[in-house]
Amino acid sequence: VQLVESGGGLVQPGGSLRLSCAASGFSFSTSRMNWLRQAPGKGLEWVSSISSGGASTSYPDSVKGRFTISRDNAKNTLYLQMNSLESEDTAVYYCATNAGNRGQGTQVTVSS
Asked: Which pLDDT score, from 0 to 100, does residue 31 have?
């Protein structure tokens, strides 16, 4: 299993970023996928999930209405569109399988 996140960076409050996760080594198209994040000094937090076909998504209240998870099974790629970013969204973001595999993460910093 290999998961490679990209798209992080420094953005001002209110800004947007789109994260990508390239997946390989397993059956991506039949796997439910997740985004997690870890803020400095804090534990791992669930951010979003999407069903294998993409029809069903879920979010915690902290990001609902601002973040959108999606996937392209033809490209074995998972996405996270993040809008209206807040300083509290600063964290390392990981894509992850339900089995617990996750990538190296991509840093998102929201600061003016």
From this structure: 97
- Compute, in degrees rounded to 10, the torsion defined by CA atoms 42, 99, 26, 79: -40
Residue 106 — φ and ψ, nearest 5°? -135, 135
Rounded CA separation 3/73 (Å): 14
Q: Is 65 helix (H, G, I), strand (E, B) or coil?
A: coil
36 strand-pairing partners: 46, 94
Alpha carbon distance 103, 105 (integer Å): 5
43-83: pLDDT as tens digits: 999 999 999 999 999 999 999 999 999 999 999 999 999 99
